[in-house]
Amino acid sequence: MKDFVIIGHKALTTGDFSLNDLPGSAGRMDILCRCVNSALFLSHGMRRDVNVHLILLGEPDPVKVIRFNGEKLKYLNPDERSSGSLIKKALEKDATPYETQSTPGVWIRRAGLEELLKEFGEASRDIYYLKEDGTDIREYTELATDAVFILGDHTGVTEAEEELIASMAKQTLNIGPLSLHSDHCMIIILNELDRKEA
Q1: pLDDT digits over 67-103, tens only?
Q2: Distance between CA atoms of 62 and 140, rounded to whole angstroms?
Q3: What percent of the chain has pLDDT over 70?
């Protein structure tokens, strides 16, 4: 499996938001929805070897993680409203330290970046942090096809988060000379991995 972790600093942590106003009523949940779609959809199918972990840090009840698992996922269509609806249903569940499935392929739990990084580390997974001043992904020869990639939202990551990521990451990578949206970065990363696997 390939894993993407996206940190949503303002993403609402209850299901009390409008699907008609994901940017405003849900703390830029639209960004996370686009990331879900970019990581999971192909032209005529879905990537079954991808997990997307959305870390929700917004009000009123942080911190929660919603995981989309491509292998078991159902009821997701390639639009923001569809992924927003699945997130909304997940947030209606009580979040405990253990995963609770809300719909097929979607789980929620009370956890954060530190817990996720620790779990990936214990599983001996290669963790990569995406940042503009990292090593060019095309020049990095050790890229694992079952890696974990950490990305921020439109606000980037905080200094404390960056220190935590740096302490666990195998390498900081960049995907090109320009700063891109997180969902665009994910497509490029997956394309690089597709080429590597081919």
Answers
A1: 999 999 999 999 999 999 999 999 999 999 999 999 9
A2: 36
A3: 100
Superfamily the domain 2-109 falls into = SPOUT methyltransferase, trefoil knot domain (3.40.1280.10)
CA contacts within 13 A on the Cβ side of 86: 27
The ranges of the chain annotated as CATH 3.40.1280.10 are 2-109, 125-197
State both tokens at 109. 């739990």
Residue 61 CB neighbour total at 10 angstroms: 13
With beta carbons less than 8 A apart as the criterion, state whether 187 and 35 touch.
no
Given a contact cutoff of 8 angstroms between Cβ atoms, the answer to whether 30 and 77 are in contact is no
97 near 152, Cβ under 8 Å? no
| Nearest partner of 99 among 91, 110, 85, judged by Cα | 110
Helix axes 113-122, 159-168, angle to 10 degrees: 0
- In one letter, which amino acid is 168? M
Residue 174 bridge partners (DSSP): 136
Mapping DSSP to helix (H, G, I), strand (E, B) and coil, where does residue 18 land?
coil
pTM for the whole structure? 0.97
